[in-house]
Amino acid sequence: MGPSAAEEMRQLLSAHMPEAVAFLVEIMRDAAQKPELRMKAAESILDRACGKAIAAKEIEAAPPPPAVIVFEGELEEWSK
Length: 80
Description:
The chain is mainly alpha-helical. 56% of the residues lie in helices and 0% in strands. The chain is elongated. The protein starts with a helix and ends with a helix.
């Protein structure tokens, strides 16, 4: 069985990876470019080199323990 369409496309495009990376680096280093574009190029490089960052999830606090009421004195006798 031959390669899947996705695999075939990846193989065709892989020949252009060095040029694409060089282009992103060029944009990232070009002080004449808008900062947003330079940042996007840097993020693209980092995403591919290191993997995309995982969004931090809010940590749910454990529910507080139930309140314990202790009756003393007259109320202790009454509560029995």
